[in-house]
Amino acid sequence: MSIEKDPEINESDVTPKEVYLDRREFMAASVSAAAAAAFPALTEAGGHGGTPLKIDKRVDYASKEEQTSYKSAASYNNFYEFSTEKEGIAELSKDFRPRPWTVTVEGLVKKPKRYDIDALTRLFPLEERIYRMRCVEGWSMVIPWVGFPLDGLIKLSEPESNAKFVEFTTLHDPSQMIGQRREVLQWPYVEAIRLDEAVHPLTILSVGMYGEVLPNQNGAPLRLVVPWKYGFKSIKSIVKIRFTQQMPITSWMQAGPQEYGFYANVNPNVDHPRWSQATERRIGELLRRKTLMFNGYAEQVAALYAGMDLRKNF
Amino acid sequence: MINSIKIPSIINKTATALVVLIPLAYLVCAWLTEQLGANAVEKVLHTTGDWALNFIILAMAARTLSGLAWLKWLASYHRAAGLGVFFYATLHFLTYAAFEHNFSISEIISDAARHTRIIFGALAYMLTGVAVVMMLPAILRRIGFRRVRHLHKAAVYPAAIAAAVPYVWLVK
Fold first, then answer.
1. This model's pTM is above 0.95
2. How does DSSP assign A96-143, residue by residue?
């Protein structure tokens, strides 16, 4: 896939000389201004015990459907790195250390780099995106993620013209992630998406939820959110982002190739071999609801798959 | 010695019934205090299914262990355990029918047609029902105790195996 014209640097983008010379003072002033602006955020934030985040923009991509309670979102997690039991993750991950943390961007890019997580986050204004999240198991939530478009990082990294896929890797540390002591999956956890899916405006890297920093059990300090795919594609606790030419084999493709494909687009017409995907249980509701094509994001993403057999490419 | 403890029948029966109902009491309390977790329906489905299986084990244990002289008194609890199986299997089926399929028969049949584990579950439930019904005094008298003994075993052993299948197959 060819990258559209490189973002051009204009005369007007050049930092004014006075600002450049006084850059340390400029930074200090901006940080304290941000902190002052953040104090209202401190009182606004849901008070769930996490550090509040400063959010520049809020968009509801879940058609005003009721948000899942923070309690449910933070206590019902598929995170096999800690355990295969969904309700034990919060406890098992409470001593997990999301700092210090680096994220390496490598592979077919002109600007590979190792980022400190806080330095990476500061590069982009944070947005709150309220997305539906649909697990392949047949349950779903509506979660207000806080993050920034993955496309921002991709533009900074300048993928080579032959880069077609973006592969993500989770931390591999059995001393902290006790579930990794058993080969439940091949560790570390690897996920991947096509480059056009990665630069899509809906795809974000998330550093928080419900106005606060991500709890450990939800993938601290950095996770992917691709809302039109089954939840297992939204990889957690990312340490590496690699651009490749060949389609990577993801952890779930490796574990169950008949059951878990590369695309994993939410599709009520394509059943999982062992259960139907036509309906889902929205956490907090008693009766099941109909699953929506592409998790309700068909309008925004269907074009990515025009002409594809979605049953074969599941 | 323990065989000769005499408990008035009405107290014995009430106490046994209450013990069988403990898992249900736990579920109701947990639901009222919002301790069933984020996916309450799944928790109830699993718990009722688990206890149907547990009571199968208890029923078999009561029957087998009562062969030991000092455990003869267990035999009288075999029936309560069997009823426990049927009770929790019924709750399990009702939870499934109500919250997975909104009581739609066509949806249930379609689910069973596509997913073998549902067929095994349904088979286990029907066999359990047959095992209970044949012990009703009216039926027992007509078929005869000796025949019923054989039929009962022919129903409960396959039921036990069939019941284990959905449990094992639902591991992701």
1. no
2. ----S-EEEEEESBSS-EEEEHHHHHHTS--EEEEEEEE-TTSEEEEE
Residues of A numbered 214-273 whose beta carbons fall under 8 angstroms of chain B's beta carbons: which are they? Answer: 271
Is there a contact between A213 and A221 (Cβ–Cβ < 8 Å)? yes
Residue ranges and CATH numbers for the domains of chain A are 22-305 (3.90.420.10)
Q: Does B168 touch chain A (CB under 8 A)?
A: no
Question: Between A35 and B42, where is the model more confident?
Answer: B42
With a pLDDT cut of 90, the percent of chain B lying above it is 78
Please report the ipTM that was assigned to this predicted complex. Answer: 0.81
How confident is the model over B8-36, as pLDDT tens digits? 889 999 999 999 999 999 999 999 998 99
Does residue A176 sit at the B interface (CB-CB below 8 Å)? no
Q: What is the pLDDT of residue A25?
A: 57
What is the residue range of B123's domain? 2-169
CB contact at 8 A, A52 and A212 = yes
Strand pairing of A212-213 and A223-225?
Answer: unpaired
**Chain A residues lying within 8 Å of B38, measured CB to CB:** 68, 71-73, 75-76, 86-87, 283-284
List, for residues B82-128, the tens digit of each pLDDT value.
Answer: 999 999 999 999 999 999 998 999 989 988 888 888 999 999 999 99
Query: Structural domain tally of chain B?
Result: 1
Nearest to B99 among A75, A275, A287 (CB): A287
Chain A residues near residue B170 by CB distance under 8 angstroms:
274
The 8-class DSSP code of residue B68 comes to S
- The A residues from 284 to 313 touching B (CB cutoff 8 Å) are 284, 286-288
A162 phi and psi angles, rounded to 5 deg: -95, 10
Contact A275 B100 (CB under 8 A): no
Task: Give the CA-trace dihedral at B109, B114, B120, B126, to 10 degrees.
Answer: 10
What pLDDT score does A48 carry? 85
Q: A187 and A180 in contact (C-beta within 8 Å)?
A: yes
Interface of B with A in 87-126 (CB under 8 A): 99-102, 111, 114-115, 117
The C-alpha atoms of residue A115 and residue A205 are separated, in whole angstroms, by 14
N-terminal to C-terminal alpha carbon distance within chain A: 21
Question: In the Cβ-directed half-sphere of A19, how many Cα atoms lie within 13 Å?
Answer: 8
- Asked whether B92 and B84 are in contact (CB, 8 A), the reply is no
Q: Which residues of chain A have pLDDT under 70?
A: 1-46
